[in-house]
Batch of 2 targets.
Target 1
Amino acid sequence: MGDDPRHGERRRGRAERGDASGPVGPAGPGGAGHPDRAGGPGGLGRRRFLGVAAVGAAGLAAGVTAGCDATSGAGPGGGPTGGEQPDLAAERERPGNPDWRIRSAGPPDAVQGYTDKASVLPGEEFGLYVSTTAPGFRVAAYRVGWYRGAQARLVWRSGRVAGRRQRGPRLLPGTRGVRADWRRSLAVRADGWPPGAYLLRLDAEHGHQRYVPLIVRSAHATGRTVLMHAVATWQAYNAWGGYSLYRGADGAYGTRSLAVSFDRPYDTNGAGKFLVYERALVVLAERLGLPLAYTTGVDVHRDPSALRGATAALSPGHDEYWTPEQRLHVTRARDTGTNLAFLGANACFRRVRLEPGPSGALRTVVCYKTSYRDDPRFAGPHGAPPTHDFRQPPAAAPESALTGVFYEGYPTDAPYVVHSADHWLFAGTGVRRGDAFDHLVGVEYDRVTPQAPTPDRLEILAHSPLVCDGRSSHADSAYYTVPSGAGVFATGTMRWVEALMAGTREDGRDHGMDGRTGAFVTRTTENLLRAFAAGPAAKTRPAPRANVASVYGT
């Protein structure tokens, strides 16, 4: 679930909340101000702890409340255009540009921007919309990757563009959504841009900078490991203009947006959720030299063939908001042999709908949550699915049927405790049963919940005791396979991707995770990605040992 850094909850470390610069509030996440800790009628927060012993099959069948609560052209190096699949192996050998980081964000209105497409194919044009207090600005497009440790390469740079201060946020009646509705500042064609995750850095002439994220998606996924970027979740937490899917300008749940638009900048540094929950995974996957493909959850929603032939699909560290179509297409991919990895917690938790915006289709994320009965599409004659938690009725479909684990709570901070030390995922880590890695479980977690829909043959790999909101529970990492041979792994903790850089100078605020934890998570993730890249995991790796009954005594 994460948090919403512009409002009055107790702040978590700046890296976890997605703010790479700026002040850090009092330590300790959660508290009464958390986005879903809302009081009053209809404001029951999903962070309220779910006592597993008190949850029966009948309750789950009815739906379970969650736990605790103007320039374009090719850049340096050139490359193919149009929808071709460039040679990413050659791309990885290029030198990087370590100057990709923001040096000065400045005031919130110093410079900010957004694109009119969340993703593009190589060679496709997109619009960039910028507001700045400076007389001019330039844009630098950096592709994120390993690049011999530089972690990004400058692919394109614009000429000077005249700056202008654009209009303030536009609040939409009915849904309390916010749009920028700015004039387009420049058109950019992604000629020579290899597929990948990009940070467009806006460099204003007064020295301040901001990111605009963009995915250049791959033309196909066949034979590749697909990074499925969680753009709907980025937008759900985006509080630009004072509103997100969690709270309104007054900080209250009851005044939150019911629909949020991609036609506005992201708050804070412009790319906080990507930098915290996805960047380290991109860097590692690129360093391993695996055949990769890039897409977004929105593209998987739009295109039933987006994952066709993929060896694996990766859900990053915080991937909460899915459409039913995305879930269907991911499930079909699993059932035809695509391995799945959920490298966070709280994945596939909220059911959303995508609607058009002024810049095109699929530009609005709709999620009424506890007010789903007020959704005119739900109440209308065609009866659209409710936009609330997947596990809740009507149309209850708990996420554990896909992920293997069941989201339970927030906030927690606990050691990650190894259970199946001899599992192939832990090969080369040297771990023994009971070994613990401090602070790796947090700030949200999942567990295996036998009363929930759970795959038949599922193995718990880590079983980590914790306390959430004063009550004892566990977080679990789990693995299962299906008849197609696909393997599915879930970490059960939101800090997994962050931990890939723990103990290094890249880790930001690492929540106390050390280099030992970073080495363990890195080696385990390498084992996972290499195995999943080889095809259906059940054909090359030992079958999971069903141990849920022995672990939980059921």
Note: The chain has a mean pLDDT of 87.
Target 2
Amino acid sequence: MRLLTTVAALRCYLRECRKISKVKLSENLLLDDQSTWYPTAVGLVPTMGGLHQGHLSLIENARQENSTVIVSIFVNPLQFGPNEDYSHYPRTFEQDQQICEQAGVDAIFLPTPEEMGIPEKNIQETHVTQVIPPSGMIEGLCGRYRPGHFQGVATIVTKLFNLVQPDRAYFGQKDGQQLAIIKRLVADLNLPVEIVACPTVREASGLALSSRNQYLTATEKEQATVLFKGLQKAEAAFRAGVRNSSQLIALVWEEIAQVSTISVEYIELVEPTTLMFLRKVQEEGMLAIAARLGSTRLIDNTILRDVYNGLRQPIIAIDGPAGAGKSTVARQVANQLGLVYLDTGAMYRAITWLVLEKGISIDDECAIAELVNDCRIELTPSQNIQFPVQVWINDHNVTQVIRTVEVTSQVSAIAAQSAVRKALVQQQQNWGQKGGLVAEGRDIGTHVFPDAEVKIFLTASVAERARRRHQDFSTQGQAEVSLEQLEQDIAARDYKDSTRTISPLRKAADALEVETDGLTPSQVAARIVSHYQDRLAQR
């Protein structure tokens, strides 16, 4: 792991990383199916240090999705007010360095304010160029109590994006207002970075992790759990049908009132993207809170989204190694539950067909990027047993032609292109906003739909997967391959998939693992359906 303290060193390091990544990609590009993705991207995790498990979750997500992970540690003076805790903010670099090294971070960027081109002054006193988000997003919630804070955040985040030029940057949902503002910043300024939101990480008590938690005494830590309890109480009421803002907020107040030492700054219900205040939740809302306990300021929030009462049906994400039966099982689950089977592989094939149809060279990534961002893909259920999902692209039914030898031979090269991957994942996530999907792949539950309500990790022994593949080859009339050879091939691939530093195969922490040895696809599907129904009942 490298420690970089200057802009010059950072830029030099990133140039070298991008060169090495391209060489490694060309040497190791073995895309065995259209859903596999080998990223060569740079991921940035911006922090102010004082790292904890919440930061570690951001780093772990970045490690899964990028070949190079940079963690910046910079206590930003521009986001602190005149009477705030800038001089006392936790600075624990030695511990932070250990955490980063153990988590597989490639480099830490640790600049001084001078290196970042700013004085150690707050945003009101500085004369540097500022990035000012829309007033409607920074005047409410925390902005009302911390004037200038989000201008300071936006200014430094923009500088970091310009310096690192990451493909992705990772932020926690705990700072919901900050997350919404940064997403808006990136969209409005057309910055070429994907903002990845990661779930809030909590202590066993429910207290949201924060660097400032170390200011709290043991007694105060216990008292602070009332914030999450209040949010939970409102969540329960929301699931029971309460949609009115004043009622939901009153429930949080009622819970917090039990701890007299907590001073509430605000409890508000807002739209998560625009931060506009809501009187009633129509689709989703962010119930946010800020309070002081002693000298410590605490924030928390929860997203209220009606998954099970008609606004959004659940998503079932099925991951697992090759040969575990994901596609067959996913189709059966979708059919039994009346959900849409999201055939992600067919999407990559459809793009490949269109590239060939238009006569575009497979190597012309610019033309392909333009094509994929200007096309319409539709997947519709069908009664056709052989083709249960009909695939349309730009109003052409390509269900059968995408299975030709010509398309199959080129789909891996198309799927390897970052613009294709990004555009199709965005389409998949757009479809996921309405829910009602069953999707399968290698990173469906960890990257594409990290908030899926039901996550499954299908697996099977090497011997069982080899037996199934052998049977498939026989049924399809393909050349005979011995079971021993198939077992060796699958074991080698498993090792490669699970140990590679770039996008290793892994089970999501909240996924149900299903061992499929000795089970038919119907039996596996039945177990997933049962688990799905249990989850609905719990909610």
Note: Confidence is low (pLDDT under 50) at residues 25-38.
